């Protein structure tokens, strides 16, 4: 991506992603490979009035070395300064930007149980930060830039430089950087998603039924005061921000013990540097009681065994099959993009904002409202070009999606 477009991307993240206001702090999490882009985001933050910008650097290759050479006790012994840094973001209500540049095969040879143990420990010790982000106490966004390893996974037939260029083009298109006014385009797009949310919320549905030729046949109940949201979200202070860039989904939370049936994936899942393919679940009374996978069954099993809540669903997301990301006809091997290509569910924790007033409820009150709690939140894609979604209410069937697209 040329310097002009990179600057435009950084400004979009600061202005629309976290919607930074004068006097706020900006915290950026980025890979060392992303240094030029992280600096552009930092500069855009200062120009918008950030009082301080902090960059947290990481290096995925060093991380892989740790999983190769360190013991489980060492890997799960999270230093106090890392916990303090995580708490700082929540306590100071920093605007938080996470820049992804994944290598989908990075941890292919690593022990899945070690990866799962470290992930669970971080969610436990960084709970203040995760609670703040999931309850919208802070404004946050996730964006991405390509690396040669990721780009070659997406475009194996191209040279590394050609693959990076091709992936940049698809990222730029998916986040609307090709527009003369990306910020204006995002506002219009978020307004369209808000309209769909309004339609879904006005239905007062009791449950949603999912059926596809791929084998998905599931009925999942919705909480009494469910809320579908998408596009822009509102912080606890009432300021809009876009948590995902790109975003094409509208989402809510299922009622924890109500899902019954079978769910079959329609795209690969990349989780902590490992790939899971051709997988699915059997669900009874909300609980995942069985799973299968052509590849990565050990990864899937580790996710499900994280805690009590990791065998329940925490999100149901509707994404039209005909959307800009999916129309790129590309498997990104990156959940940020792939989840915005297809309808999906998430294993684990639900967003409190998926029920009315949920942001102010305690963990116990959210459980009572029907929302699941877990240390994990793992999205997996199920949308197909023949997916039918039907709302169920008082014995009536109300079509929501047909052939993968909205019919509301």
Helix-strand layout with pairing:
Layout: H1 3-17, E1 25-31, H2 35-47, E2 52-58, H3 60-69, H4 72-75, H5 80-91, E3 95-100, H6 112-125, H7 127-134, E4 140-144, H8 148-154, H9 160-174, H10 182-203, E5 207-211, E6 217-221, E7 229-230, E8 233-234, E9 240-241, E10 250-252, E11 260-264, E12 269-271, E13 274-284, E14 287-295, H11 297-304, E15 313-318, H12 335-338, E16 344-348, H13 363-368, E17 377-381, E18 388-393, E19 396-402, E20 405-406
Parallel strand pairs: 1-2, 1-3, 3-4
Antiparallel strand pairs: 5-6, 5-18, 6-11, 7-10, 8-9, 10-15, 11-13, 12-13, 13-14, 15-16, 16-17, 18-19, 19-20
Helix pairs in contact: 1-2, 1-10, 5-7, 8-9
Describe, in short, the structure shown:
This protein is α+β, with helices and mostly antiparallel strands and 408 residues long. It has 13 helices and 20 strands.
Q: What features would you describe in this structure?
A:
- It contains 13 helices and 20 strands.
- With 408 residues, the chain is of the alpha+beta class.
- It is globular, with a radius of gyration of 20 Å.
- It starts with a helix and ends with a strand.
- The longest helix has 22 residues, at 182-203.
- Low-confidence segments, given as residue ranges, are none
Shape: globular
Largest sheet entry: 9 strands, antiparallel
Overall pLDDT level: 96
- Radius of gyration equals 20 Å
Beta-strand segment tally = 20
Strand content: 25-35%
- Helix content, binned percent: 25-40%
Assembly type: single chain
- Number of helix segments? 13
Roughly how many Å apart are the termini? 38 Å
Q: From the helix content, strand content and strand pairing, which structural class follows?
A: alpha+beta
């Amino acid at each position: 991506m040329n310097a002009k477009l990179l600057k435009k991307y950084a400004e979009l993240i600061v202005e629309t992603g976290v919607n930074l206001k004068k006097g706020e702090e900006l915290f950026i999490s980025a890979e060392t490979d992303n240094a030029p882009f992280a600096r552009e985001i930092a500069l855009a933050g200062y120009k918008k009035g950030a009082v301080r910008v902090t960059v947290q650097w990481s290096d995925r290759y060093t991380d892989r070395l740790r999983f190769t050479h360190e013991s489980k006790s060492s890997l799960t012994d999270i230093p106090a300064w890392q916990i303090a840094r995580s708490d700082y973001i929540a306590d100071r209500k920093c605007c938080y930007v996470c820049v992804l540049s994944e290598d989908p095969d990075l941890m292919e040879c690593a022990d899945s149980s070690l990866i799962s143990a470290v992930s669970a420990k971080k969610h436990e010790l960084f709970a203040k930060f995760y609670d703040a982000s999931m309850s919208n106490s802070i404004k946050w966004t996730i964006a991405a830039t390509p690396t040669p390893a990721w780009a070659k996974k997406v475009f194996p037939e191209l040279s590394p430089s050609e693959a990076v260029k091709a992936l940049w083009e698809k990222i730029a298109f998916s986040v609307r950087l090709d527009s003369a006014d990306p910020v204006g385009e995002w506002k219009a797009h978020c307004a369209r998603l808000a309209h769909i949310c309004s339609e879904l919320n006005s239905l007062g549905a009791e449950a949603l039924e999912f059926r596809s030729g791929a084998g998905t046949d599931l009925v999942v109940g919705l909480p009494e005061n469910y809320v579908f949201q998408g596009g822009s979200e509102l912080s606890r202070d009432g300021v809009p921000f876009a948590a995902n860039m790109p975003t094409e989904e509208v989402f809510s939370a299922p009622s924890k013990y109500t899902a019954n049936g079978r769910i079959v994936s329609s795209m690969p899942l990349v989780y902590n540097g490992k790939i899971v393919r051709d997988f699915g679940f059997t669900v009874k009374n909300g609980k995942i009681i069985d799973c299968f996978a052509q590849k990565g069954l050990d990864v899937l099993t580790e996710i499900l065994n994280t805690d009590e809540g990791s065998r329940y669903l925490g999100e149901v997301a509707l994404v039209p099959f005909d959307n800009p990301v999916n129309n790129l006809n590309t498997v990104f091997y990156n959940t940020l993009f792939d989840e915005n290509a297809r309808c999906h569910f998430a294993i684990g924790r639900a967003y409190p904002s998926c029920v009315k007033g949920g942001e102010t409820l305690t963990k116990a009150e959210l459980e009572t409202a029907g929302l699941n709690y877990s240390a994990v939140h793992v999205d997996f894609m199920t949308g197909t070009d023949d997916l039918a979604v039907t709302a169920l209410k008082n014995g009536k069937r109300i079509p929501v999606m047909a052939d993968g697209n909205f019919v509301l």
